[in-house]
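[Automated response] Your request has been received and processed.

Submitted sequence:
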Amino acid sequence: MNHPLNFSGKVALVTGAASGMGLATAKAFSDAGAVVVLADFREEAVESVAEELRARGRKALAIRCDVSDESQAAAMVERTVAEFGRLDAAFNNAGVMAKLAPTAESTHEEWERVIGINLRGVWSCMKHELMQMQRQQSGAIVNNASVGALTGNPGIGSYIASKHGVVGLTRTAALEYAKQGIRVNAVNPGLIDTQIARDVVSGDEEAYRNAGDQVPIGRPGRPEEIASAVLWLCSPAASYVVGHALTVDGGLTVG
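Generated structure:
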């Protein structure tokens, strides 16, 4: 029997793959034997990662994609299938943090930016991934939500709303496509050592360290720890997990 986290012969797509959780997940899929498509609006950055993976003998493709533009999301999936013939796993990870502002002081433009990437972007990618997976009658999708989907957080209303929306969208799609051999789940990362986490405290390293101290496990999570959860959710080991938002937060939301 093959190890359940062996993705040899599978094709995995990761958005927001230039850094942080997306980069760690793309590398994890590659290490597990998958062909990896790395998508990000930072084309040079993902191409550099793809070149690194190819230098190690892996198959990898970099695609520039702004997920807030549905036509680009559609083209991303189309190119993936044109190059590799199928799509077995997708991690819809691309996202941004909101600029700090109380709700009454937030702007229309900021809401459009955050919702456009974090929520509409997930929908755009998932829509076209699902269309391909329907043709195959197989596949697994994981959407990146947040512990912000479980609570409120003053000053980042658009971000919190977008992540609540991702979980709701995940659960709905999971019910729609479960009988077609497609599993849709999400992850709710807590404080993870990424640039977005630092953006929450406006780059204040002392505040960031203090935030890490408040996590019951005593530290921020590593992007690789989210990658491990994503690979498990996409694997046969999670074959009966449908519509679940898996919280990976070092105990932050337990109390």
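Summary generated for your ticket: Strands lie at 11-15, 35-40, 60-64, 89-92, 139-144, 182-189, 245-248. The longest helix spans residues 157-177.
If you did not submit this request, please reply to this message.
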